[in-house]
Batch of 2 targets.
Target 1
Amino acid sequence: MTAPLTDQQVAQYNRDGYISPVPAIDAERAANFKAEYDSFRNSGDPEVGDLLRSKPHLIFPSLFDLVRDPAITEPVTSILGPNLLAWGTSFFAKNAGDPGYVSWHQDANYWGLEPHEVLTAWIAFSPSRRENGCMRVVPGSHLGEAFEHRDTFAEGNLLSRGQEIAVEVDENSAADICLEPGEMSLHHVGLVHGSDPNTSTIPRIGFAIRYIATHVRQHGGRTTATLARGVDEFDHFDLETRPVALNDTTGRANRKRAIEQQHKVLYAGVDRNATA
Ligand SMILES: O=C(O)CCC(=O)C(=O)O
């Protein structure tokens, strides 16, 4: 399934701010990733939520390899060029009947990355449909304004700070990103997107990888990233290392350090008690 995007797909990405569906891995591999996710989720580890939310690829060797897999990176190079870093990874999971949702937001507002040669590959490990709370996007919104956001830290919001756009978003203009297991979407860091609760009996599990071109800079301090493809001639980020075994002590410590470094930069001045 390894193929660059066509010129038409690149034009579509530039116009709409996203492209979907893009075939990535086969359904069997997606099912294996889901099984590994389920088993870890049910492991009883008291930090499981956090570990899956922020940079899980630093404790899962299989996810670290997926971040670097040409099946994912080849289409991404059509947009960002040959040299890629993965700045972050995150599971976005909703169980059957899960009230969890993602408020409308633009990633660019929070990540402090410039220029905006930054995109998310959102890989479906389960079917992702309207009924189970697929991602929804506002086409073309990456070309419009950078909206003001507020942090709500609202319960049920799957985003780390419950960030949401401070003005009404016209939901009628939104498109559903429907994916089969193993397919992915690519979306621009400025695109308005979110998702609704899962009202179905089918879980929705997505794994998001945040890719940046190697020349992108982090405002406010140095953070870490994984070299996903090509070479890093810029040294703007501390490079992360592959975990050797699932959730082993070294991988866990490396991940912890990377997250602390990232939080110092991203959460500088944020009041976690704010409920605006
Ligand atoms: O999975 C979702 O519903 C939202 C994902 C998201 O916000 C993101 O990948 O930036």
Target 2
Amino acid sequence: MIEVKNITKTYMNGDMATHALRGVSFTINDGEFVAIMGPSGSGKSTLMHILGALDTPTSGTYTLDKHDVSKLSDDELAEIRRNRIGFVFQSFNLLPRATVIRNVTLPLIYAGVPEAERLTRAEAALKSASLTPDRYQHMSNQLSGGQIQRVAIARALVNNPSLILADEPTGNLDTQTSEIVLGTFQCLNEEQKRTIVLITHEPDIANHAKRIIRIRDGVIVEDSTNPNRRIINHSENS
Ligand SMILES: Nc1ncnc2c1ncn2[C@@H]1O[C@H](COP(=O)(O)OP(=O)(O)OP(=O)(O)O)[C@@H](O)[C@H]1O
Ligand SMILES: [Mg+2]
């Protein structure tokens, strides 16, 4: 489903070039749960933006569902982002003074889904993300960190994307809340067969994935299945 070949990304600021990615290649098949792990500044978010068709590589090719992403028009890219990919960003990008429900239905408004269906789908997504209904009418600035994260996950799920890209989805969370969020991802992967790419700098978080790709200074230093995978029993999370 995802195939990146020798991707590089160089950011230019005036005369200064930052080589964020220096030749990255891998394939991710449908239904995988992959963690991309590396220290701060190693190029993780840069890679996620490219995988999410939010940015283009400086060189190399990116093929998503047999489409060469570099050859798609802006409209086609927007269409892919809207229908195929769910994003959980490093900064969650929720609207602070809109309700939980409003934040989750917003992508559906853009996609032109009728109002009654928007509500049903938002509630289903919030349920999948383990947020309890008593929070749905709260403003997102009236929620705890873990609840905000779950709203961000629900918003990523609401379009039924086959691919979920999550950038540090458990950053700033205590261990217990992190486990709930990771259990949600495992459940989405196992039960709903969604492909998940989870970006993190923490080994304990990456350890919940089936495969771990390690990146350092813009290159992959290791790519292997995770023999010590930690599995969270989703039914304990409600
Ligand atoms: N828009 C930009 N312009 C210039 N340099 C950038 C830009 N975005 C990122 N960089 C640089 O590219 C490198 C990789 O950044 P990136 O955000 O991909 O790292 P990261 O692995 O996600 O780090 P973190 O764990 O801190 O989020 C860094 O050195 C960063 O300063
Ligand atoms: Mg980052």
